[in-house]
UniProtKB/TrEMBL annotation:
InterPro entries registered for this protein in UniProt: Aldolase_TIM, DapA-like, Dehydro-deoxyglucarate_dehyd
Record's keyword terms, sorted: Lyase
Pfam families for the chain: DHDPS
Leading EC class: lyase
Protein family (similarity comment): Belongs to the DapA family.
Native source organism of the sequence: Streptomyces lonegramiae
Lineage of origin: Bacteria, Bacillati, Actinomycetota, Actinomycetes, Kitasatosporales
E.C. number(s) listed in UniProt: 4.2.1.41
Catalytic activity: 5-dehydro-4-deoxy-D-glucarate + H(+) = 2,5-dioxopentanoate + CO2 + H2O
Cross-referenced SMART domains: DHDPS
Domain of life: Bacteria
Designated name of the protein: Probable 5-dehydro-4-deoxyglucarate dehydratase
Pathway, per record: Carbohydrate acid metabolism; D-glucarate degradation; 2,5-dioxopentanoate from D-glucarate: step 2/2
Cited PANTHER family: 5-DEHYDRO-4-DEOXYGLUCARATE DEHYDRATASE 2-RELATED (PTHR12128:SF19), DIHYDRODIPICOLINATE SYNTHASE (PTHR12128)
SUPFAM superfamilies linked: Aldolase
Length: 333
């Protein structure tokens, strides 16, 4: 059963706390596992989600960008969200992706609610570039369709003005903005405008850029500490070390990880279309869990890039304070 928005006056516990209160830590965006026949592999998926939670994830964002939301049928989507909820078992919140046009986004939202999700990450509408008024209507309708809280994702064809975010922050159930655009000038103006309109508000902001750790220090400068970590999927040791450094002001460790691991990883990611997903799945396989390959239209990384990824993971693990390097074996040809 999905958790409804917590009313004022209720005690804040792991079961009754609002989603906004529970999103405090490193956010895990698991890949979706497929078997040899290309179908959903829920056993591998459960193992992946379980491993992330046990490694220290603060929340599970199921079937989002890294989880290939675009490639899932509604039946697969519901099954995967339900599996994540089953594994989480209330220990951490589960947020599910929902997207496309308003009608389909609402259908996915209702499936997520039926599956027991705690909230939604509202992906950009399919293809169209809408006006600010149209975007506001879209997300208002989505937030009103279920009892789930909603985080709105700004990227690609969805770019908000500060005033539109001010209005979104007033919509019941809309609790935050995930920024995948990377325009810090715009984001700072958004943060300022929302704060000026409601100084006591609790609206959340997330760094949603691919490989968000690369820009973590910059986002921290405007008060944005929450972020999605794709690296956590395959190297939680590295992701957690960076997260701790970011929060404690250990910039020396943070910069060492950026220089030795994250920047080279981003440069590798930028060498192939769709590598923000396919490299992550390859990394999960390298660390011992077969989650299958990406679905078309995405493609697998080249053998040369897989070799480079394995070397990068080894280098990153060696940079983790207090931990020895771990040898990684590439199993894909």
């Amino acid at each position: 059963m999905a958790r409804r928005r917590t009313g004022q006056g209720e005690p804040v516990t792991s079961a009754s706390a609002s989603l906004a209160e529970r999103l405090d830590g490193l956010l895990f965006f698991p890949v979706t596992a497929y078997g040899p026949d290309g179908g959903l592999d829920l056993d591998a998926y459960r193992a992946h989600v379980r491993g992330g939670i046990e490694a220290g994830a603060a929340a599970v964002f199921a079937c989002c960008g890294t989880g290939e939301f675009h490639a899932l049928t509604p039946e697969e989507y519901r099954a995967a969200v339900a599996a994540a909820v089953e594994v989480a078992d209330g220990r951490v919140p589960v947020v599910a992706g929902a997207g496309y046009g308003t009608a389909l986004a609402i259908q996915y939202a209702k499936l997520a609610e039926e599956a027991g999700a705690d909230g939604l990450l509202a992906m950009p509408p399919y293809l169209v570039v809408a006006s600010q008024e149209g975007l506001l209507r879209h997300y208002t309708a989505l937030a009103g369709a279920t009892g789930l809280d909603v985080i709105v994702y700004q990227r690609d064809n969805v770019v908000f003005t500060p005033q539109t975010v001010v209005e979104l922050a007033k919509v019941p159930g809309v609790i935050g903005l995930k920024d995948g655009l990377g325009d810090l000038d715009l984001l700072q103006r958004i943060v300022s405008a929302v704060r000026a309109d409601d100084p006591e508000g609790k609206f959340l902001y997330f760094n949603g850029l691919p490989t968000a750790e690369l820009t973590g220090l910059a986002y921290r400068g405007i008060g944005v500490l929450l972020y999605s970590s794709a690296v956590f999927c395959f190297a939680p040791e590295i992701a957690l070390a960076y997260h701790k450094a970011l929060l404690t002001g250990d910039d020396a460790t943070a910069n060492a990880l950026v220089d030795g691991f994250y920047r080279p990883l981003v440069e590798l990611r930028n060498q192939g279309r769709g590598y923000a997903v396919s490299l992550v799945k390859a990394g999960v396989r390298m660390r011992g869990l077969d989650v299958g390959e990406v679905r078309s239209p995405l493609c697998e990384p080249s053998p040369e890039h897989l070799k480079e990824l394995a070397e990068l993971i080894e280098r990153g693990l060696a940079l983790v304070p207090g931990d020895a390097a771990t040898t990684v074996t590439v199993t894909e040809a």
